[in-house]
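Collaborator request, handled under Task 6.
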Amino acid sequence: MFATIRLILVTLVGVLLGLGSAWWAVGNFHFDGAQTIGQWSVLKDNAKANPYEAARAARRGGGGLGPSEGIELITEVSADNKPLQAACAYLVSGPVPQGVLWTLTVSDRDGHLPSNPARRFGFTSLDAMAFGSARQVHISIGREVRPGDFVATTGLSSLRLTLRLYSPTLAARAPGSDQLPSVTPLGCEQGAAS
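Structure tokens returned to the collaborator:
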């Protein structure tokens, strides 16, 4: 009787550890050596060669951009390497590669978009204001409305930024960190850790 209970417990613990480690591996973009550029991680459409990427693509409902389309970058950390929090405000500022169509999307880690009255989920190279000869962007993200380009994070429990750069040349040669915007914290709501 004791041996049967022990076998059941060992099997149950093994199953739970296996499922937990698989969930962690699929959710951790750095687990399989993903390329990083500054605070941004490059998502590659290599789901056929990498089972972890295939599971990530299935979880988020699609794959990355193909080599003839461009590159997809994500970040879940600010420039000071702290996790992004939906209750905090951030400024996405800096250059984006010139002559490239791009989109910046705000979502949670599961890909859910914010629920805000403006129905604004991000910006594109066609509608974001760009400043100076380097065409730098300044996009605010948070729960409190800010002047200029702004995306509300209402309804999100976590925060992920996805930057897609549409250019076949960038797929072959990724931009440097000095060619990508950085995400800097502006502050947090009371009760949220900064």
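The cover message to the collaborator said: "The first helix runs from residue 2 to 27. The chain has a mean pLDDT of 78. Please let us know whether this matches your experimental observations."
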